[in-house]
Input
Amino acid sequence: MSSNASEGSFYFDLSGPFVNRFLRIGYFRMIIDFLANSLMLVIMGTVAWKCIRLKLLRTANHAVYSTLGLFFFVAWSQMLTCHSCWLAKSFWAYILHAVLGALAMWTGGMGILAKILDKRRENKKFSINDREGHMSSKHSRCGLVGFLFLLFCVLTGVVLFGVHRAKLQLCHRTFGLFSFGCLASSQWFSFSTVFARREWNWLWIRGLQLSTAIATVLVGYEELFHIVQDLLEYFK
Output
């Protein structure tokens, strides 16, 4: 913690040697990037392989598009282009960040639409009192909230192309982090659904949930540090 006696103000400095040396630069950060990317590829590959074997029918269609758009592309947009050791702060990082954000919205939207249409078809087989609601699980509720945050993130990102304001940038990054947190939670809950329990045994499910939790922390911690730093600088 740093202080300024003349102004009588105190503020926390998060740019200490541990954060800067071990979490932002150097080999340790490269290892974190490698682990995060590896875990996301394992999760995406496992879900995609299962869904392709099911010929992308019904829930499999929703699962592969949602995992690709609302977990994989969102995570890459946040980590690979904003804080990666290889791309961060370069011109191509900003371009790739925008492309991945657009792909996340488009692909994730396709996944959500596929599930809505599938549930409508299923509900036609039952009476009105026996039909299942659209937002009846933690998986679906987290997914919807995360998608709304993603929408706000994309909209603020579009405005940032023409208007560069610190407050708007902070809103954009905060929406992005909240979006990824909610969507990662939805991904975690998805491995407890009937579809997941039918297609994988309990050991696979626990492994996928653990991989999702670890990947979420490895992807999101850096953005959280930046947002906290920006807030402390703003109120300093």
In short: The chain has one domain: 14-119+134-235.
